[in-house]
Amino acid sequence: MAGPPLEQGVGWGIVLGFGAFFAIVMSLLTLAQKRYLQEHQTSEMFMTAHRSVKTGLVASAVVSSWTWAATLLQSSSVAYKYGVSGPFWYASGATIQVLLFAILAVEVKRKAPNAHTFLEIVNARYGKATHIIFLIFGMLTNVIVTAMLLLGGSAVVNALTGVNTIACCFLLPLGVLVYTLFGGLKATFLTDYVHTSVIYIIILSFLFTVYASSDVIGSPGKMYDLLLDASIKNPVVDNEQGSYVTMASLQGIIFGIINIVGNFGTVFVDNAYWQRAIAARPSSTVKAYLIGGLSWFSIPFTLATTMGIAGVALVGAGVMEPPTDHEVSAGLVLPLAATALLGKAGAFAVMVLVFMAVTSAASAELIAVSSIYTYDIYRTYIHSGALGKQVIRQSHASVIFFGLLMGALATILNYIGVDLGYMYLLMGIISSPAVIPVAYTLVWKKQTAVAAVAGALLGLICGIIAWLVAAQKLFGEITLKSTGDNYPMLAGNLSSLIISGLVATIVSLIKPANFDFDITRQKLEILTDDEVVENAVHEDPMEKDPVRLTKAFNFAIISSVALTIILIIIWPLPMYGTRYVFSRPFFTFWVAISMIWAIIATIACTIYPVVESRRSITAVIVGIIRDIRGQRITHEKKTDGIDKSPSEIIEDKA
Questions:
Q1: What does pLDDT average to over the chain?
Q2: Model pTM?
């Protein structure tokens, strides 16, 4: 890259200015919810949002927390390397985990409705020794995810503006720290919604620019011609006919397998997803994860099918310099292509896009780590009777500490040469050994503590051994380059997941347990300090109806498994097996699918939450108007004792 397309001032403005803006706005929204909606910041509200969040907002939060810097950057890089198969395998390989997690999300409501973290469930079922092992896996997963966020974000800001990478590592989480401290989990949901909306708007603008208004490309047909020319000049290794427009890509499918395995770890073992399940209304849980997963699919699929392959077309057209291998691995194809297409406007759009992804996902990680520290370390091993203000104080301290720690870790990784692409491929080796034991904890009463621990530890050990041995055998050395290759990473990822699952299953079957899930229902309790009792949210009893929850569980299994089979078998594998190379009409159809999917996802994640929360929004607006007029805000009581918001009072009087 010749030189940053934007001035340093723009970089500082986005990193500091946007960070300060969101910190102030979200802190004010937290105060508004307290004043006008009676949402007081108790310990339960801070960590679980009183388990009352509706479908649309949870779906938007799922999309936001799963949209990392890697989602935007790495997906575009694999599109540049492997063609159209890259975006598909990135999207499908990281969507099925969210869809399948819907099963665990509703199981939390059925079997541990008062849990604050998934590790509390592990502790209640197996005891402290097992709890400590999975506590380490959980924290490692959060560290890896946050490191990837900061590595990707700092690389883009540095490439586009020249702002110091180390400064970015520490400053990107700064605004997040502030509003997370003020508003807890609910504030992260609100920022997730805003960030998700902005991300979709920018993706749609790129989509219509590339395929409708660009002078260089301007239509799917022109893109197809440019990709054909590129495949003749620089054929893709291991792709059918060296083509960029085929799903018959060996490296693409290898990446897909690594992607599938790795992302199971960073969903099932990342407390951020469990928190969203815990915070959702029971009736909203399954729908939220299915809508969120299918909506998220459109982000890497549409963006990379637009900007990633546009990078190939622009290089072929002589509009863009070919990126180096390091730039591709660091995820810089997206900013390079956007700058080549739109100049400074494109670079600025990518800056905003990446900033939104990094900060919203970082807020989810911060509150996830905070809840683990508060409930699984502080209240379990340090002060078991802590309630209310003590819990919130510890939560605040852990948010600050983790934010600073991750800035330091990202700095170290930058210095030793570990980039986003390397961390993305590595994550499954570290986190996926815990996936099956954690899932069994909620869905299989026969798993024992010994089986859970043995599966996780042996899976990790075998995964690391397979990874390093494969690198040594294939390349004769163990270096960052050899261990970062697809084949050693594939060996390590598969070994970690498969061996842990086999060990956990076999050991449990040899001497099975017969766990009674009434223990997790009764042992885990909502904090009952005076603050929470005074401001308790009154739930509809139907929300916890066992029959309704069982129906939701059955629906989750059928729908998530069916969608998984479609996304990773029925859709891609026939196209791989037949070695089909896209025709011009089929490529146009493929682009149209990405476009339609993105538009529907935008509606689901930006308009649906507003419609669903219209009464609360009205309540805040009415409250602000009354304050401006100097009128007193009253909260009448319903006949069942539940407080009414100002908007409900108006509706009743009307």
A1: 85
A2: 0.85
